[in-house]
Write a sequence for this structure.
């Protein structure tokens, strides 16, 4: 942030409110939004409180109480996971002048910057607008005009523009890590050492590298790069007992196509701090492949307990089980080894845990059936197939050994979910082991 003396900053903040860049400072408890970038969360009210974390501009916070301290007002705030509000991200005290009742937007900030008569205020508002939307050509062009007008007084803006233009993915982290990014949050969930993957369920004893802001990580769909994810939150102290999530932002590659109805900000994607092996194309699923998978699945169902067969057959045959829910069918293919053999996946999903609970669906089922290609070209159902209660997201080679892993989303109640990995073991497909640190 631009460094100003307290009296000068107070005057500027007052000017911002009048300019129309923001709505109003919150007065009581409720939802509020940060209006500056790298807003300090402190362990106690007052500037002497230790900095627990820093928030990006536009972050949602929940105000618990407001008190006066040292002639200023401070808000006790809670930062919740944007998708799952039961998951805390951080908590502490924030100077309430850095909060607003409405989420800041680039249009108002840019207009206020252009109308401001004070060069310091122009630069401050322009920097905040760029923090909200660093991909905006209009904001970048305006900042460049400020730089051209006063090169000596805009060193920070020059650095910000230069850093974003570079945006190189990290290459200095000692441990290979796999993250999940979903709707503005980056969470560590696995590590890779000596081609062995381990799921992470506990937190690191020290603040890991991704607790620092402005670090770029690679995002993938399978082994195909799809863009970058940037951390936007710094965490100095954590009281959580599990892998700590941080606020982040997704920057998709230009021209990337998204599923209908899905916005880039809401996307779920696999993220790593190391480059994955180059994508090896797998042939498209054919009608014959689908028929083979159905036949193998039917044979497998006939071997299951009688109490389970009926529902499995209904799902496989896509029968009308419920008035408001259809069976969702998907097909996937992956590389089984470096010799050119592949595996096929047929997936039949009915309902979800939430729909069973709230909509009285009779059951939730996710048949994930994996057929492996044999040396003679035929396919055989692999051990590890079955009703997994998880749904395939993609196949991806995470260890560069030539065999793709299977990345799955496991739905829970209230539309929450967690992610798991199936890896080819000696006798079949096995869930990656978890460890708590």
């Amino acid at each position: 942030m631009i460094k100003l003396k307290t009296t000068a900053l107070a005057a500027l903040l007052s000017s911002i409110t009048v300019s129309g860049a923001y709505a109003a400072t919150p007065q009581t408890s409720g939802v509020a939004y940060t209006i500056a970038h790298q807003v300090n969360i402190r362990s106690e009210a007052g500037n002497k409180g230790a900095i627990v974390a820093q928030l990006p501009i536009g972050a949602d916070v929940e105000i618990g109480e407001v008190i006066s301290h040292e002639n200023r007002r401070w808000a006790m705030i809670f930062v919740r996971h944007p998708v799952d509000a039961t998951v805390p991200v951080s908590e502490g005290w924030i100077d309430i002048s850095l909060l607003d009742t409405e989420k800041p937007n680039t249009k108002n900030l840019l207009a206020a910057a252009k109308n401001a008569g004070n060069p310091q205020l122009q630069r401050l508002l322009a920097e905040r607008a760029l923090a909200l939307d660093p991909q905006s050509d209009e904001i970048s062009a305006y900042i460049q005009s400020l730089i051209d007008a006063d090169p000596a007084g805009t060193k920070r803006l020059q650095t910000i523009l230069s850093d974003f233009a570079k945006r190189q993915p990290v290459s200095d982290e000692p441990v290979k890590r796999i993250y999940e990014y979903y709707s503005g949050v980056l969470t560590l969930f696995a590590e890779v050492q000596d081609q062995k993957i381990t799921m992470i369920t506990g937190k690191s004893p020290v603040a890991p590298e991704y607790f620092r802001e402005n670090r770029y990580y690679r995002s993938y769909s399978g082994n195909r790069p799809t863009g970058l994810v940037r951390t936007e939150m710094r965490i100095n102290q954590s009281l959580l007992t599990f892998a700590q999530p941080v606020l982040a932002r997704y920057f998709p590659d230009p021209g990337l196509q998204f599923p209908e109805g899905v916005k880039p900000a809401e996307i779920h994607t696999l993220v790593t701090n190391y480059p994955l092996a180059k994508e090896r194309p797998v042939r498209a699923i054919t009608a014959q492949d689908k028929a083979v998978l159905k036949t193998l699945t039917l044979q497998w169902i006939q071997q299951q307990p009688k109490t389970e067969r009926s529902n499995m057959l209904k799902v496989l045959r896509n029968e009308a089980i419920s008035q408001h829910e259809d069976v969702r069918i998907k097909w996937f293919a992956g590389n089984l080894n470096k010799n050119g053999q592949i595996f096929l996946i047929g997936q039949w999903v009915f309902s979800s845990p939430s729909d069973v609970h709230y909509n009285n669906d009779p059951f939730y089922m996710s048949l994930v059936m994996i057929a492996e290609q044999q040396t003679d070209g035929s396919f055989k159902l692999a051990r590890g197939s079955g009703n997994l209660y998880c749904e395939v997201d993609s196949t991806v080679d995470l260890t560069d050994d030539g065999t793709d892993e299977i990345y799955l989303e496991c739905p829970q109640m209230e539309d929450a979910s967690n992610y798991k990995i199936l890896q080819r073991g000696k006798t079949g497909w096995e869930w990656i082991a978890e460890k708590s640190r």
